[in-house]
């Protein structure tokens, strides 16, 4: 974990793609690619004596995520706007394919007791409730950016919660922004900064500050739970991943051709994650 690994560049790219999709977690992809524990430990170790080792591990992942967001954000927005059902069926298949891997690494048949299954159920219900009570669902740009004091506080809190969610398999940061009703404002602010319109800078600074705080706090908590309550944490992660299907599932196709394409993308997504899970070493 102490060296700059080029193999983490495509892993970061895959995580970046997933974080562009509301409902799909970069943490799920990190788990599937076998780097979740090291990723959490590295984020937690940024402000510690392991600073250099953590940065060297995270750097290619961050570069990969940045490349994915920069190169594919327009494509993902196009697919969500014009081919939402087949696109989300692909990610639904991807998530379903993760479940056998999670069951395998948790050794559920000998480690899970009634308490573990109750935790699984509770987190499934939590994610299902979040999916049904989400705030805004539109990707349209807002007519203006609200910079009132209450909203500035909300942007900071949104950054904390979104980044914390990004570290958890099953919950995406963009989905949390949707729940809080600030997703379109944040994405619009990013696009305005790219165009050198610095009116949106306070939003970016506050959300960004919240993201940093959320990463540091959540990573330390998750690392502690994985170390001291390993299989209870796996149970929670399993519940989060299964529950995320409620937020990703886009509804049934409305035409024969859409059915065919959606089933195809579902199968492709499942096969990709299932095969990756078979070749990923246990922690």
Main beta-sheet strand count, sense and barrel state: none
- Domain count: the total is 1
Gyration radius, in Å: 19 Å
| Distinct helical segment count | 13
Q: Kindly name the structural category.
A: mainly alpha
Order of helices and strands: HHHHHHHHHHHHH
The total beta strand count reads: 0
Averaging pLDDT over every residue, what do you get? Answer: 83
- Stretches with pLDDT under 50, minimum 5 residues: none
User: N- to C-terminal separation?
Assistant: 14 Å
Overall spatial form: globular
The amount of beta strand, in percent, is under 5%
**Helix share bin:** over 70%
Quick recap of the structure?
The chain crosses the membrane at residues 12-36, 57-79, 85-103, 115-135, 147-168, 200-219, 231-252, 258-277. The chain has 283 residues and is mainly alpha-helical. It is 76% helix and 0% strand.
How would you characterize the overall build of this protein?
Keywords: Membrane, Transmembrane, Transmembrane helix. With 283 residues, this protein is mostly helical. The protein has one domain. It has helices spanning 8-19, 26-32, 36-44, 51-82, 84-106, 108-111, 114-132, 149-166, 173-180, 183-194, 201-228, 230-248, 256-278. The two termini are 14 Å apart. The model has no long low-confidence stretch (mean pLDDT 83).
Keywords:
283 residues, mainly alpha, 13 helices, 76% helix, VCA0040-like
Which helices and strands appear, and what pairs or packs with what?
Elements: H1 8-19, H2 26-32, H3 36-44, H4 51-82, H5 84-106, H6 108-111, H7 114-132, H8 149-166, H9 173-180, H10 183-194, H11 201-228, H12 230-248, H13 256-278
Helix pairs in contact: 1-2, 1-4, 3-4, 3-11, 4-5, 5-12, 5-13, 7-12, 8-9, 8-11, 10-11, 11-12
């Amino acid at each position: 974990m102490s060296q700059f690994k080029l193999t983490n560049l495509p892993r970061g790219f895959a995580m970046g793609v997933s974080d562009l999709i509301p409902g799909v977690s970069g943490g799920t992809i990190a788990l599937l690619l076998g780097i979740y524990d090291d990723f959490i430990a590295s984020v937690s170790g940024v402000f510690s004596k392991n600073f250099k080792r953590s940065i060297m591990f995270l750097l290619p992942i961050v570069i990969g995520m940045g490349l994915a967001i920069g190169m594919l954000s327009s494509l993902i927005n196009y697919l969500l706007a014009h081919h939402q059902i087949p696109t989300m069926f692909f990610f639904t298949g991807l998530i379903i394919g993760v479940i056998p891997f999670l069951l395998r690494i948790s050794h559920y048949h000998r480690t899970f007791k009634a308490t573990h299954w109750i935790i699984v159920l509770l987190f499934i219900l939590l994610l299902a409730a979040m999916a049904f009570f989400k705030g805004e669902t539109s990707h349209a740009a807002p007519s203006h950016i609200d910079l009132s004091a209450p909203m500035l506080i909300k942007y900071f809190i949104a950054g904390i919660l979104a980044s914390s969610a990004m570290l958890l398999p099953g919950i995406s940061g963009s989905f949390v922004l949707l729940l809080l009703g600030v997703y379109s404002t944040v994405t619009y602010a990013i696009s305005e900064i790219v165009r050198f319109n610095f009116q949106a800078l306070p939003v970016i600074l506050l959300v960004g500050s919240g993201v940093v705080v959320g990463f540091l706090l959540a990573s330390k908590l998750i690392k502690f739970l994985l170390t001291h309550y390993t299989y209870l944490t796996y149970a929670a992660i399993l519940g989060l991943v299964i529950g995320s299907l409620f937020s990703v599932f886009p509804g049934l196709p409305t035409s024969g051709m859409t059915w065919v394409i959606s089933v195809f993308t579902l199968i492709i997504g499942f096969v990709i994650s299932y095969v990756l899970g078979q070749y990923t070493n246990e922690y």
